[in-house]
């Protein structure tokens, strides 16, 4: 007669079967496995190993934040008009060549996407090696193929100082479902491409096919006090935008979609006289040129 095992004893035996017995594999405790060797077989320096580990950590964090944003087809309804999809940019870290000022810098990143502006938190005392690990999610308008990036040193008693800037082309491979992670050179007082570099991770979620309606969702981040503190001396160059292979100036507007109205824009400025005109314009455009939607969004910003 077979002897029946106690349930707890049976569980203990099952767990023992899954135990790894023997020597641990090489690179057991390294992030993402063993680091890559250089092609000629030269041993990696400690700095190169750390850079590879940082890159692996950046991709892992980006994928984690991307997953937490929801499934790829999870879009709020209704959809914004003239939108290609949702762009995700993870601003990981930067390596700057110079610390401007007498104290350690407090850098933050500002990103321009079309008429929208997004910012990371400030890395207090980040100095020449700031880390943000911040993912920005935004709708990517049709025809926008570049972002403009700036790094500022946050100042308490004066206007924030521009440290570095760069025009960055959105990688084409992300539109095929891939994730792009790359170090981009920065421009500044030391010269073009000589101010350091910044690590960005790009991915993209295509908009589902279907009818689109004016956007009445959230608006871009605007710091407290509007643009009062944001009058910096540097004006970003406007990238040339193309739609369907033609310059914007040659594209015939679709009359079925709402168009910009000077009268509505003027009324919005009169309704919110203390709000910066560029902020009002950005909210008006984000609302699909709907005066009522823009007014409601601006009222929410004033609360």
Automatic annotation (TrEMBL):
Q: Which GO terms describe its molecular function?
A: ubiquitin binding; ubiquitin conjugating enzyme binding
Query: What organism does the record attribute this protein to?
Result: Folsomia candida (Springtail)
Keywords annotated in UniProt: Autophagy, Immunity, Inflammatory response, Innate immunity
**Sequence ranges assigned to domain CUE in this UniProt record:** 260-303
Q: What is a biological process (GO) this protein takes part in? A: ubiquitin-dependent protein catabolic process
**Which residue range or ranges hold the C2 domain?**
68-184
Q: Does the keyword Flavoprotein apply?
A: no
> Belongs to which family?
Belongs to the tollip family.
Q: Name one GO cellular component term.
A: cytoplasm
The protein, known as? Toll-interacting protein
UniProt-listed Pfam families: C2, CUE
Signal peptide location: none
